[in-house]
Write a structure and sequence with these properties.
44% helix; 234 residues; 4 helices; 5-stranded antiparallel β-sheet; alpha+beta
């Protein structure tokens, strides 16, 4: 059967092509696919960055443990150092009195008897370089040399007191004791005669007896010296 359209041309319906709709749908589909690909790519990058972040956290955690171990080791090191210095200071000041008193007995002349031996502190004045408020030496304008001053202090001494029987010529053996003590390397290294003896003579019957007191300054070992008693003796 043949269909004839009797409507005028201007009233006839316009036949539209579906191509623009197809193109639009294609563009939309391409856009969706692109967005999906971008999303997946973004998720992949986020996952990679998250993995890196987790690795960094693990490394940081290990680093914190290492730092904590290092700090603990450093603390122990400082504690051991403090203990070592304390022990060193004790050993530096240590005197083996049994050995030193045995030396003193061996150095004592036969005509001397001891009444008392004691370790005590006594005041003394020491000549030191004068310093200003900044701790620098004060220079004398005339001599251009550092000025000195007497500074009061205390020192540890071994105080030895006893009696001496002079010989027929009135010679006191106290000075012989001082001479022998000063010439002995082991004893003089630790004890030094820095003052003259105090001597008083009294008559007992028909004999003259000298009562004396002699101070020996007790020295500390200087840095680098050995603390062994008796070292340096023949």
């Amino acid at each position: 059967m043949i269909t004839i359209n009797l409507l005028p041309v201007d009233l006839r319906p316009i036949k539209r092509t579906p191509l623009p709709h197809i193109v639009s749908l294609a563009v939309l589909a391409a856009t969706v696919v692109g967005l999906g690909a971008a999303f997946l790519s973004g998720q992949s990058k986020i996952g990679a960055e998250q993995e890196k972040c987790d690795q960094k956290k693990a490394e940081y955690s290990q680093l914190k443990e290492i730092v904590a171990e290092h700090n603990a080791a450093e603390k122990k090191k400082n504690e051991f150092k403090e203990r070592f210095l304390t022990v060193k200071e004790i050993l530096k000041d240590r005197v083996i009195w049994s050995e030193q008193l045995s030396k003193l007995a061996a150095l004592t002349p036969e005509n001397i008897w001891y009444k008392q031996l004691r370790v005590t502190e006594k005041p003394f004045q020491e000549m030191k370089i004068k310093k200003d408020s900044k701790g620098k030496p004060v220079i004398n304008k005339d001599t251009l040399k550092p000025e000195t001053e007497l500074v009061p202090g205390k020192r540890t001494v071994l105080e030895v007191s006893g009696y001496s029987k002079p010989d027929d010529k009135g010679h006191d053996y106290i000075y012989e004791l001082i001479s022998q003590a000063g010439s002995d390397p082991g004893f003089s290294r630790r004890f030094e005669v820095t003052t003259m003896p105090k001597i008083e003579r009294t008559k007992v019957g028909d004999k003259i007896i000298s009562s004396f007191t002699q101070d020996f300054t007790v020295h500390k070992f200087e840095e680098g010296e050995s603390g062994a008693e008796g070292e340096g003796e023949a």
